[in-house]
Design a protein that fits this description.
This protein is an alpha/beta fold. Helices cover 32% and strands 14% of the residues. It contains 6 helices and 6 strands. The protein has a 6-stranded mixed β-sheet with strand order 2-1-3-6-4-5. α3 (134-143) crosses α4 (159-165). The two termini are 22 Å apart.
């Protein structure tokens, strides 16, 4: 599997061969499972409504039982009343789903393969910038003709690059050692460097 390597100016530099995990069979079921687990693990789970025992009302009976013409009422915190307690409302919970290391590794391989099959992977020989300026990143995106896409840069040395790109919408810069299947699938274009491919190859072969 050969792919073209570009410079940051958009010029073709050479061709390189991709590792074998860019050509594995893709399982939609596993990718869906890993995506749901990842999104669930991002949730804080702190949502909460108050039950009738937690709303701020006294326990006094609003009016006497008979003779007023009103319906019987025992407390103002009834769920039937305005500002009363909530029945079966959301309560704090943990949305964490544990995924095995094998599933994470295989799903990442599948995500790379899916993006390669769609032609969404862009290899750049180097992404070093002269100044930590947003315009440097904008120029690279224009040269690669991906300025209107959701772009993920998965690169080894990313600190300056991340700072320079954080004001650009739909551009994510991630360390290649921390990349996951969801981030790969989210991107319209996944930008890698040959060095990043070597690192991910070493990581996936363990």
């Amino acid at each position: 599997m050969d792919i073209t390597v570009y410079s940051t100016k958009g010029q073709e530099v050479r061709n390189m061969e991709l590792p074998c995990f860019f050509g594995v069979k893709v399982s939609g079921v596993l990718l869906h499972e890993i995506t749901v687990a990842y999104l669930g693990n991002q949730r804080s789970g702190t949502h909460k409504t108050k039950t009738r025992g937690e709303v701020s009302f006294s326990g006094a009976k609003p009016w006497r039982q008979k003779g007023t013409g009103n319906a019987r009422a025992g407390q103002r915190n009834s769920p039937l009343w305005r500002k009363g307690g909530i029945i079966f409302g959301p309560q704090p919970r943990d949305y964490y789903t544990k995924m095995s290391k094998q599933k994470k590794r295989i799903s990442l391989n599948m995500a790379f393969s899916a993006q390669f099959q769609k032609g969404n992977i862009v290899i750049v020989d180097s992404v070093k910038i002269n100044k930590v300026k947003t315009r440097e990143i904008v120029e690279i995106l224009k040269n690669l003709k991906i300025e209107d896409k959701k772009v993920v840069f998965a690169i080894p040395d990313y600190s300056d690059f991340r700072i320079a790109s954080r004001n650009i919408k739909n551009v994510v810069v991630e360390n290649i050692n921390n990349i996951n299947a969801y981030q790969v699938l989210w991107a319209d274009r996944l930008v890698l460097t040959p060095e990043a491919i070597d690192l991910i190859k070493e990581r996936q072969s363990k």
